Known about the structure:
This protein is 41% helix and 0% strand. By secondary structure, the chain is mainly alpha-helical. It has a domain at 95-209. The longest helix has 38 residues, at 2-39. 21% of the residues are buried.
Amino acid sequence: MIKRFTDDGSTTLVALAGVAVGVIAVLLTxxxxxxxxxxxxxxxxxxxxxxxxxxxxxxxxxxxxxTATVTVAPRPTATVPRPGDVRGLPGGLFCRDLKAxxxxxxxxxxxxxxxxxxxxxxxxRNGIPCETVYARSDVGQYWRGxxxxxxxxxxxxLFCRDLxxxxxxxxxxVTYWWYSGMPxxxxxxxNGIPCETVYSAVVVNAFWRQ
Length: 210
């Protein structure tokens, strides 16, 4: 009977010990949960959420390169022919010399007369100097209606063929054309070269190249 009591007492102690261990485990679990709840702060749902996006880096100010100043050189102006006084010029000049110095055709004629009408300025000796150096329009404008020795006695309103029949040279025909005001009847194609179809091409080209 004593042995049975001892066995029953051991069983009871073991059961009590198991219950105690279970209670202790529950208490420890509860303490851990309570501690975690206290450590975590309570979030206010009404407070605005913090923006976790890192602030954007401030952009550097744009560097504007300095504007280069471009200096445009003025265009050279054409030499304006001077009507000018030719009395101070040296003697012995040619038509090309006067034109290169900027003198007009009128000034060239004045120089030619002042030098005694030298042949070096009137190669064909028709009384019209520098006719192949200056523009034909300038030459024709000057001599239009002026008395020219080579054509002073020639009738008006003639054609190139009439002058050829009279024995006029090509230079004399050109002089007559200028004297008559450069009429189209002597220059049908209007290229500024009269009687080119009446006289030979060799004669015409030789005249305008002198």
